[in-house]
Amino acid sequence: MTLHSKIDSRSLRPEDAVLTPTYAARSLNTAVPKYKIPEREMLPRTAYNLIHDELMLDGNSRLNLATFVTTWMEPEARQLMTETFDKNMIDKDEYPQTAELETRCVNILADLWHSPEAAHTIGCSTIGSSEASMLGGMAMKWKWRERMKARGKPADRPNLVMGIDVQICWDKFCRYWEIEPRQVLMEGDRFCLNAEEAIKLCDENTIGIVAIMGTTFTGEYEPVKELNDALDELNRETGWEIPIHVDAASGGFIAPFIQPDLEWDFRLQWVKSINTSGHKYGLVYPGVGWVIWRDREDLPEDLIFYVNYLGGEMPTFAINFSRPGSQIVAQYYNFLRLGRDGYRRIQQSCRDVALYLSWEVARLGPFELITDGSDIPVFCWKLKGETNFTLFDLAERIRDRGWLVPAYTMPANREDLTVQRVVVKEGFSRDMADLLIKDIKRALNFYAAQPGVKPRQPGKTRGTFKHC
Question: Which residues share a beta bridge with 268?
């Protein structure tokens, strides 16, 4: 007797067993407890239908132009992920081949980012870029502390230099690990840090500088080479040895393929660690991130732990312990399936669509581009002048058509500026771009026909900004 048969005969009423193929099932005609566990079990199909129907109220992920996260993968990749959902990435003794695929991915990324010894460097997968960033930050703090102790100096007042445009994980990192955040504020038309302002904030207690390859707010690359050159001079004069960590959550999978001559990675002396999101332009479903160090010595031994209770002695230096192996398998599938040429074509296509769409947005009239998608395939715009709508109004209006195009205010010192942003990813086609433009035009025509409509104030609308 199957498990389903046992449930039918033991705990379900006879009419439930007869009616379960249809929505006349008794479980679907009565309210189901939502905030406490039900007293009785139900058939698998019934539970599936209940949850499936609720999830229809979610937005369509393919129309979500706020998120950087992958929303489409090939059927073969999905199949591999399904086959490996039950594998725990941390259990390398039980799943040695999954562990081997993780090592290969680390070596591939190290080579992609021009590590001096890609085959022998060190790195790991993580749940996402937030964890990967924090690992890079921890390594910088530990190395700084080693240097300070070697010089007989106190190591109780570390600081980290970064732009105010960093992802929220860096604010969390500074708070969790008791580090003073020193942020370069936005100024005028400059929306990220530059070397001049970053260097001003450095001193002997600076554990490092964070540079972003593709900021969340505008999609711009921060000037990593400019920072490196300025640090080279500063470190030579002072002996401080301040490193750079590159948060390449998006750009780590963009620049190597469509901007290969751009120097931002381990080709630069002071870039000691890099993180990226496999689940963004690495083209894997969430969640997987990666962190790579330039040399093995850049990861302090004190951050590596060894455990033997999973069947063999195993080093671990990620913050999370148990985590899924399926995303690692999917990442390796993409590397194998696409190769350099495949990634290049996909990322170039995304950028081409972004450039086309930004040009079309600029042609509509009331908008002025801040960025056009030339770095990562992300661009944003602002309103040119007085209108009877705000960008928050526009975001709400086109959301009625299913589009999630976030509007948000910039951080200090540009809180006065409201912008709207589009993230172009694999699966967003030129045809979909044309559909978006049609719906924006439809919204603009509505406001043009309603001259008495008053624009909504930013503080009186729900936020649509996705800082991810």
Answer: none
CATH 3.90.1150.160 segments of the chain: 345-460
pLDDT value at 458 more than 70: no
Strand partners, 212: 247
Closest CA to 426 of 70, 79, 128, 65: 70
Q: What is the location of CATH 3.40.640.10 in the chain?
A: 76-335
Q: Which carries the bigger pLDDT value, residue 40 or residue 231?
A: 231
Q: Options 3.40.50.150, 2.40.50.140, 3.40.50.970, 3.90.1150.160; which CATH number does 345-460 get?
A: 3.90.1150.160
Task: State which amino acid sits at residue 373.
Answer: G
* pLDDT interval class at 16 (50, 70, 90): low
Q: Is 297 helix (H, G, I), strand (E, B) or coil?
A: helix
- Residue 131 has φ and ψ, to the nearest 5°, of -65, -40
Residue type, 406: P
Cβ neighbors of 61 (< 8 A, separation 6 or more) are 67, 71
pLDDT averaged over the chain?
Answer: 88
Which one, of 440, 383, 366, lies nearest residue 417 by Cα?
Answer: 383
pLDDT at 71: 84
- Give the residue carrying structure tokens 């193929």: 21
Helix (H), strand (E), coil (C) string for 422-467? EECCCCCCHHHHHHHHHHHHHHHHHHHCCCCCCCCCHHHCCCCCCC
Residue 438 makes CB contacts below 8 A (sequence gap 6+) with: none
For the whole model, what pTM was predicted? Answer: 0.89
- State the Rg of the chain over Cα: 25
Written as one string, the DSSP assignment of 97-142 is HHHHHHHHHHHHHHHHTT-TTTTT-EEEEESSHHHHHHHHHHHHHH
Helix (H) or strand (E) holding 204, with range, is none
Strand 367-372 vs strand 378-383: parallel, antiparallel, or unpaired? antiparallel
pLDDT tens figures, 20-71: 555 666 566 777 888 888 888 888 888 888 888 888 888 788 888 888 888 8
When pLDDT is averaged across residues 161-186 and rounded to a whole number, the result is: 95
97 or 339, higher pLDDT: 339
Cα–Cα distance, 158 to 154 (Å, whole number): 10
- Nearest CA-CA partner of 389 in 457, 436, 439: 457
Question: 319: closest CA among 167, 136, 157?
Answer: 136
Which residues are paired to 307 by β-bridges?
A: 314
Q: Which residues fall within 8 angstroms of residue 118, CB to CB, at 6 or more apart?
A: 107, 110, 111
Query: What span, in angstroms and rounded, lies between the C-alpha atoms of 155 and 147?
Result: 9
Of 154 and 84, the structure prediction assigns the larger pLDDT to: 154
* CATH classification for the domain delimited by 76-335, as one of 3.40.640.10, 3.40.50.1370, 3.40.50.1820, 3.40.630.10: 3.40.640.10
**Three-state DSSP state, 271:** strand
